[in-house]
# Entry
Amino acid sequence: LARCVFCNECALACPECKIEFTPETRMAATRAEDLVVGPGRAAPAPAETSAALHRLFGRSLKLRQVSAGGCNGCELELNALANVNFDLQRYGIEWVASPRHADGLVLTGPLTRAMAEAIELTWEAMPEPRFLISFGACALSGGLYADSEVLERGFLARFAPALCVP
# Structure
């Protein structure tokens, strides 16, 4: 799931119907490796919040989102979380404009060289304790751009996401 962009082409191309897209939305994991599904391996178990994160941020969570070279598809989905249909604020989760007010960084896009410094500056501006969420196939694996020479994914080599959302 960390490489899938959910285009449905593989399901349409499989005559045995072994690939199926469902309306299930609970598919995040605490490690990208847990997003691998296949024969004999069930779908990812729902991600559990660690006791430490829950104790620190259980009733109020401020998130800063940075797009690191993506197509804006994931950003549209994140914006939808704050609209009246999904109302993320009812859970005490809010988007903030400044990293200085953020508890967590939501990273989208494949992490291009052009955005490498911006990601570092955003992370360094966030107060401790802080955590990282990788959102979308591009942030998780490079997605469609995984083989591009313009990517700089060293940030993710140094800071492991607390949550991986395909």
About this structure: The mean pLDDT is 88.
